[in-house]
Amino acid sequence: MAELRYNPLTKDWVMIASHRQNRPQMPKDWCPFCPGSGKVPDDYEVHKHDNDFPALSQNPPEPDDVATDLYKTKEAYGKCEVILYSPDHTATLSDLTVPHIRKIVDLWTDRFHDIRQDEKIKYVFIFENRGEVVGVTMPHPHGQIYGYSFIPKKLELELASCREHYEETSRCLICDMLAEEKSFEKRVIIENDDFLTFLPFYSEYPYGVYIAPKRHLGSLEDMSEQEKDNLASILKETVGTLDNLFDYTFPYMMCLHQEPVNGEDTSDYYHFHIEFFPPMRSKDKVKYNASSETGAWAHCNPTAPEEKAEELREAWKKFKSKEQA
After folding, report:
1. Which position among 47, 100, 140, 142 bears the catalytic label?
2. What pLDDT score was predicted for residue 20?
3. pTM
């Protein structure tokens, strides 16, 4: 079964993908993403691989006959891809060189451009899940891309807030946020010519950093060559910073928020950015999303962002000193 079911309480679509339950457990001594597996090229630097067990498909089956006037269904139309970062099974973003990460940025951009050509796709979501604590069973360095036939609720709310702020002020909300963070300084972690990594004023997670471009732009496609180079650089430094917090490969969910596609023009008010959701609240303690966070969307951060930003800056210095050694 693969279909979309509508939740009338939240006005959002839920992907029902029961076929993914049958995904095989990979043998410990074999990886489908390593050269020689027969599943990927024997020689690659970065690579796009169609997901073998997609939740969304451009040739989806008909939904089950369970819809009513209240409970709506529709085809699970969309695209699911895997982006392989490296042929090295144990590499992470912070291990890769900036030129190599730039190849990942270029592949992300190419796939965003190609997927948006399908007029049924309304949002292209690029993300990475990293670490067993967030449910990753495949350690080979990779991210994913989902092309949705709808705009997911969180993105819809974010777009509405940005639109409302623009209508009230004639300014971009995220541009204003960046100005506040730069003025306050204490939550800024890393800065280069084109990007800022900061721990937001309202961070839901102790180490939930954002990366945002200083220039107002809506997607990867809007970036100059220099901006793509500097995005690669700050990605390496941001992940390296997280990895140096407690001297282990730090788990996280990394999500690229870009303008929607094949719909309303949001270029005046929407601003590309990357959100990180790292589940650790200390070296050996996980910040679980419990009833308040999950049932009410009422988040509680048990730490002060200003204090954690200082901790992150120290981890960044540690990472830079290792890089320069």
Report:
1. 142
2. 47
3. 0.96
